[in-house]
Structure formats: C-alpha cells, structure tokens
Amino acid sequence: MPIQTFANRVSKNENLTYEQMLQASELMFNDETPKDEIADFLIALKLKGETAEEVAALATVMKSYALPLDLPEGNYLDNCGTGGDGLKTFNISTTSAFVLAANGVSVVKHGNRKISSASGSSDVLQALGIHTNFTISDSIELFNQEGITFLYAPNVHPKLKRIGEVRRSIGKPTIFNMVGPLTNPANLTTQLVGINRPDFVRDYAEVLHILGRKRAVVVSGTQGMDEASLDQENTLALLENGDIHSFTVDMQTLGLTPAPITALRGGNPDENAVILRDLLNGKHSAYFDAVLLNSSLALFAYGKVESIQEGVDLARESILSGKALAKLEAVIQYSQDILKERTLQ
C-alpha cells in the first residue's frame, strides 16, 4: 500500500489505527518512498493532529531501526523536550542533565542538532567542547565513567538521514518532534518529557506507558513551551505504574521567582553555552530558576526525591556546591581526550 493512501485518509481527518501507522511508518523509512510523498503525509498528520496510537506506532518502528546500545539493565532516565515550540528558549534540559548526573541519576540523553529551534542539544554541546562524533562504545564508556552520556540521534539512528532531509524541507514541527524523546536506544525506565501541546500531555503519558516506562513526568509550559515554564501555566502529568495523574506546581511556594517566557530566551549555540556555564557557576537568573524547576521534575520522575520541593533544594545544592559544573568539565575532558586519541592514530 503506498504512503499516499495513508496521506489521503489523514487528509480526510481520519485517525490511523496503531497497525496502520506501523505500516505507514515502515514506508517512511523505506528508501523507495519518494521524499515529497513522505512530506505530504507528515504535513497531513500535523494538520489533523497526531494521536497517541500514531505517536506510539512511529516510535516503535523508529526505535526498531536504532543501533543497539549495550548497557546493563538499570534505571535510566532521559530528560528532553520535543522541540518545535518556536520559543527559542535556551537549552534547559541539556543544562539540567549535568545537575541530574551530579546527583547520581543515570542519564542517557538523546538529542539532535537544531531543526526548528535556534540551538539544539547537540549544537550547544559542540559549543561547550563536547563533540558529537562519539561511537556507540565511546558513549557507553562515557556513561561508565561519569554516569551520563549523550547520544547524537544521527549516530544511533542511521535511517534518519533521509527523514531529516524531509523535515528540513518542511521547516516546521512534525510528528518526528513528538517521537524524538521516545526513541532513545537505551531501555529507559523513567523520563521527563516536555511537549509543545498542552492538550496532549495526558495522551503523551499514555504513550510512555505503552512503550514501557514505569514512571515519568510530562509537561507543557506557557504557549506550549516544551519545558516547565516559570509561571502557573504548566500542564503536568505523572505516570506511575500505569496510572496517570495531573498535578500542578506553584513557583512561589517552591521559592522560585515567576518570570515571563521572554526571560528564558537564548541565542545561538555559543551564546547558550555562555548561559549554561554562568548558570552552573551559580549565577542567579530566570535561567537558573528554570533549571532548578526542570531538574526537580526529573529528580521526582526518577524517584530520587519524594517531592518537587525536595528536588528544587537538591538541584540548587548541586549547582552551588560546584558538583554540576564538575560533571560538565569531566564530560568535556572525556570528549577532548577522545579527539586527541583519534588525532594520534
């Protein structure tokens, strides 16, 4: 069945079943499927609005094509946003990853270069001196040494190159933004995901349940920000052992200063790297509070703390003590050592 058949159904506002979306997804990864037809299908899905079953099916197929990651069984967390909110905030989840690792959270962070933002996770890491050319064994060794690793999506998803060309031609968020956080090659048990659709938060938690997560937090901030924002506009859901609960957070109760979304805007990768370093050096700002909040949600999802307040306090201590900055420096050193080894070979 050609992908146009599925595009036609979606164009008529028909939702695809899980099995139909599996078929359509396989066609998207087939090199024989014309790229313009894939683009038509993705645009039609976006206009209709993706469903939980469609997102779960695409994530299942996409992960099946990922290179295997030989990590032992364990409690692994990824913290990332779907991207695509167009708000050009700085790299909150990437900064938070160092805070989490400094607190003993096993972080396997899956990211990419910018597609619909000013600076993707991999862009800011590169600006910090952490290259994106890790082999799978490099990534595993980094994790074994530091309890944190970064997986550059094109390195672990070889089938994504062609899809990436299609996404760039569209230039707007697609369902692939929604599935990116779901296709980490590690067998994640827990996750913090920010999405750009407040109306889809509970559905996304259901997708995480379908895909086997034991515990997770899903958040959508102001104007669909794909992180928790510093106001009362966050939509949050907790997945715990199959049950999904909505909850709220109050900035002032947590000791955080409310701030508009404009206060969280970043710039290009070099500018965001400066923000990240200043923050981990203890510079207080809206950026600092945003990282405290998002780190606390991840600590809570991981089960490291029993409350969001406890998570905020733990995140603050790990920054002010220098532990989070030390973790960043250790990862940079590992990256630079790999580059030197390759130069000498």
TrEMBL record:
It comes from Ureibacillus yapensis. One of its GO terms (biological process) is L-tryptophan biosynthetic process. Homodimer. Mg(2+) 2 binds at D226, E227. Its EC number is 2.4.2.18. SUPFAM superfamilies: Nucleoside phosphorylase/phosphoribosyltransferase catalytic domain, Nucleoside phosphorylase/phosphoribosyltransferase N-terminal domain. Keywords: Amino-acid biosynthesis, Aromatic amino acid biosynthesis, Glycosyltransferase, Magnesium, Metal-binding, Transferase, Tryptophan biosynthesis. Catalyzes the transfer of the phosphoribosyl group of 5-phosphorylribose-1-pyrophosphate (PRPP) to anthranilate to yield N-(5'-phosphoribosyl)-anthranilate (PRA). Its cofactor is Mg(2+). Mg(2+) 1 binds at S93, E227. GO terms for cellular component: cytosol. Anthranilate 2 binds at R167. Residues 8-65 form the Glycosyl transferase family 3 N-terminal domain. The gene is trpD. This is Anthranilate phosphoribosyltransferase. InterPro entries: Anthranilate_Pribosyl_Tfrase, Glycosyl_Trfase_fam3, Glycosyl_Trfase_fam3_N_dom, Glycosyl_Trfase_fam3_N_dom_sf, Nuc_phospho_transferase.
